[in-house]
From TrEMBL:
This is Acetoacetate metabolism regulatory protein AtoC. The modification 4-aspartylphosphate is found at residue 54. InterPro entries: AAA+_ATPase, AAA_lid_NorR, CheY-like_superfamily, Homeodomain-like_sf, HTH_Fis, P-loop_NTPase, Sig_transdc_resp-reg_receiver, Sigma_54_int. The keyword Transcription applies. The keyword Lipid biosynthesis does not apply. One of its GO terms (biological process) is phosphorelay signal transduction system. Keywords: ATP-binding, DNA-binding, Nucleotide-binding, Phosphoprotein, Transcription, Transcription regulation, Two-component regulatory system. GO terms for molecular function: ATP binding; sequence-specific DNA binding. SMART domains: AAA, REC. Residues 5-119 form the Response regulatory domain. Residues 144-374 form the Sigma-54 factor interaction domain. CDD domains: AAA.
Amino acid sequence: MAFRSVLIADDEESMRHLLTVFLRDHGYEVRAVANGEEALKELQARDYDLVLSDVRMPRLDGLALLREAQRAQPELTFIVMSAYGSHDAALEAMKAGAYDYVSKPFKPDEVLLVLKKAEERQRLWRENRRLRTELAGEYRVESLVGDSAPMADLLKQVRKLAPVKTTVLLTGESGTGKELIARALHDLSPRAALPFVAVNCGAIPAELMESELFGHVKGAFTDAARDKKGLAVEADGGTLFLDEIGELPLQLQVKLLRFLQEEEVRPVGGTRSERVDVRVVAATARDLPAAVQAGRFREDLYYRLDVVGLRLPPLRERAGDIPALARHFLARFASLRPAGPLEGFAPEALAALEAYRWPGNVRELEHAMERAAVLSEGPLVREDDLPEVVRGAPDRTPPAFELPEATLSVKRATRAVEEQLIRKALAQTGGNRTRAAELLELSYRALLYKIKEYGISG
């Protein structure tokens, strides 16, 4: 991790000028102020990675500034500068949480060395945290329960993709666990110790979305009272997860495409761009190719996001995982149960779980298990403990094809079977035409033509 922005607080103008020029020449963004009060106002106005402050200053000394800065930004790295005769104050600042100090007079290279040491310490701290996570077995990929063929294939692809920076587009119905997969891609990557930042593109008002993603400068709009880092900068070095990407307004799709191509962020109202290093994972429950065809989603952005696409299977396509998932969630919610411990499921309850089609997917199953854990009174979950919609699930045996009565026409029979297959594929994929075309072994264009021909909606 490299520090970007440095705030210098020193009442000597010559010292401020020297450090500003030197650090800017070495790639830092620098702001210099003459006293502690001005420094505190700066810290309240925007975020800094590091403060380099003199110990002795008028109006608010370095020690008081340190204490106030820690309240506002606990992770801020603070380095003090002390002249001859103020070493005791510098040591007191170290005890209060400053990372290090440099003694005046000093050579600029000495300050640069201290900054590099602080950056290395931060990097090692993050690496240590990542290794502790790995040793504790806390990878979120382990929370993806199931050993069905679709899940085994998905997790194989996740492990293969995790180490590289390639942009990934996750598709699948709501509730299939897209954010869990995005976190697994992050946690199994070299970026695991750095931020994972999730953005729900459908939950943020369109007029605020650009500011949330890319930040803004003070005064950019009415409520912009201070500079603000965007979520893309917050994710620097790590992973940016763009959930519900299909909901992103068209005017922002252009700016997102530019960000993906150039890896630079320009805040709203800003005049300079800032380079960032992020791995982007996007997710959607929408049929993006259909949205492209309808003009609701930019084709160039779609292909830029869909460098590698991972489809998350709905729960009905991995029905063999239902018992294991149900037991997993039941164990999680066991503490909610007012009665004694739960041993599992009565046979009729398990049969009902396996017969239901779970349109809400894993999330719906999770909520059903929470309900069962709370309501069950005996050692086993009974069918009556399950939601009514689950108890009333019909037999999963697929119906036979219905052919037109009294016909021997191969042509008419073929059309009837073809229409029913298309309807079944669309129902099975939740209306995802791209996936339906794959199941039907048709081109996407051919499927659209046949949907129109047969008057199929959805």
